[in-house]
Amino acid sequence: MTADHDIADLGELEREVLRLVWRQERATADGIRAELPRPLKESTVRTVLRRLEAKGLVRHSVAGRTYVYRAAEGRGRAAARAVKRIADWFCNGSVEEVLVGLVDSEVLGRGELKRLAARISRARGGARGGGRGGTRGGGRR
Length: 141
Description:
The chain has 141 residues and is mainly α. The protein is built from six helices and two strands, in the order αααββααα. It has a domain at 7-71: Arc Repressor Mutant, subunit A (Orthogonal Bundle), CATH 1.10.10.10. The protein has helices at 12-24, 29-35, 42-54, 75-90, 95-104, 110-126, and strands at residues 58-63, 66-71. α1 (12-24) packs across α3 and α2 (29-35) crosses α3. Residues 129-141 have low confidence and may be disordered.
C-alpha cells in the first residue's frame, strides 16, 4: 500500500508517533504514550493514530478491546518515497543527482559508500531478466 500523504507533510507529533510505530512494530496508544518524550493523554495519542490511519500511514487490528497499530509501509520504503520527492523537486527527478550531492557534500562516508556499492552489485546480479540495468527508474549508466 502506498500512503495517501507524504511523511514530510506530517506535524512533529505525527512523525514522532509514526517513528514509534515503526520501532515497536505492533503498537498500542498506551505503549506509544509511554515512550513519548513529553506527557500526553492517551486520548491525544489515539487521535494522532487515527489521523495517521486516515492518511494511509498506519493500519490497525483489534486484540480484545485494544487497537494494535502497524505501519502501512516500512520505514525504508517511506524514506525512498521522500527521497524521490526531493529528487523531483530539486533535480528534475534524478535520484543519481541527489546521490552525487550526498557524496560530494560528504554526507555519505566511505563505509556507507562501500555498503551501497555492495548492495547495488547484489541487486544487479539478482535482478530478473539478465540482471543488468535494473527495472526501477534508473536504467543503465
